[in-house]
Amino acid sequence: MHVVVNAAMSADGKLSTREREPIAISGGTDFDRVDGLRADSDAVMVGVGTVLADDPSLTVDDPDRIAARRGRGKSPQPARVVADSRARTPPDARVLDDEAETYLLVGERTASEKVERLDRAGATVIATGQARVDLPAGLDALESRGIDRLMVEGGGELIFSLFDAGLVDELSVFVGPMVIGGRDAPTLADGDGFLEEFPDLELIGVERMDGGVLLQWDVA
Ligand SMILES: NC(=O)C1=CN([C@@H]2O[C@H](COP(=O)(O)OP(=O)(O)OC[C@H]3O[C@@H](n4cnc5c(N)ncnc54)[C@H](OP(=O)(O)O)[C@@H]3O)[C@@H](O)[C@H]2O)C=CC1
Ligand SMILES: Nc1nc(O)c(N)c(N[C@@H]2O[C@H](COP(=O)(O)O)[C@@H](O)[C@H]2O)n1
């Protein structure tokens, strides 16, 4: 599986405010690029923190891109994936609407009634890991269902865990022309942070965009 992480951060490295309100850091050009990245992916993944904060749809907007997917023999929309150890995704969340297939990666200790509720809401539930979703096993399970190219949109907790598990192949970050600040505001990679063996990145692209800059790296 090829894993691409994409996010937008402020000039000071924040994904959102300390109140975790959804905030547009990207401009129109970058949002269109993100739509294209989604269209080129078999699935788009977020952590449950992003679902609870943003209630995202994670779908492709551009009808031409949707038609092109159909032309390639793909589903009109990429699947959606939520890492959600305790099955906290609300049954009326937009990621559970009928626009696309949705996989919920939950922990093996999750109460069966919570799993059944999300199953009834239309999700395909995959249980792996104990206190937290086992990401390597979860991504293997997705690959066995035909997901070869996975785009991850955040947030910072999930992105850190994916780097920590050595699962990221590419990183794209739009750095927007704003300062958000706040020691408790989410950053690109939160979690416990690395003390050593920091992931090495090889810069493969720099582009001015929307008053900011798009940076692209391969993970060494
Ligand atoms: N600017 C941008 O590009 C983006 C901004 N955001 C912003 O980021 C914020 C949300 O980020 P954040 O709070 O970090 O949430 P995340 O979306 O990263 O979700 C984190 C949650 O995922 C669950 N999870 C399940 N398995 C794992 C695992 N193995 N490792 C890590 N997490 C796991 C955990 O909850 P549990 O233990 O219950 O499973 C964890 O609390 C919001 O403010 C949102 O607006 C989000 C995406 C993109
Ligand atoms: N690329 C990018 N730029 C920003 O400025 C953002 N705020 C985000 N947020 C991500 O996009 C999700 C919303 O997606 P929908 O439009 O609802 O499909 C949001 O949840 C973040 O993952 N991304």
UniProtKB/TrEMBL annotation:
Enzyme class: oxidoreductase
Domain of life where this protein originates: Archaea
Name of the protein this chain belongs to: 2,5-diamino-6-(ribosylamino)-4(3H)-pyrimidinone 5'-phosphate reductase
Keyword field: NADP, Oxidoreductase, Riboflavin biosynthesis
Family statement drawn from the similarity comment of this UniProt entry: Belongs to the HTP reductase family.
Region Disordered, residue ranges: 67-89
PANTHER family given in the database record: 2,5-DIAMINO-6-RIBOSYLAMINO-4(3H)-PYRIMIDINONE 5'-PHOSPHATE REDUCTASE, DIHYDROFOLATE REDUCTASE FAMILY PROTEIN (AFU_ORTHOLOGUE AFUA_8G06820)
The UniProt record lists the keyword NADP: yes
Any single GO BP term: riboflavin biosynthetic process
Gene for this chain: ribG
Quaternary state and interactors: Homodimer.
Reaction equations catalysed: 2,5-diamino-6-(1-D-ribitylamino)pyrimidin-4(3H)-one 5'-phosphate + NAD(+) = 2,5-diamino-6-(1-D-ribosylamino)pyrimidin-4(3H)-one 5'-phosphate + NADH + H(+); 2,5-diamino-6-(1-D-ribitylamino)pyrimidin-4(3H)-one 5'-phosphate + NADP(+) = 2,5-diamino-6-(1-D-ribosylamino)pyrimidin-4(3H)-one 5'-phosphate + NADPH + H(+)
Domain Bacterial bifunctional deaminase-reductase C-terminal stretches: 2-215
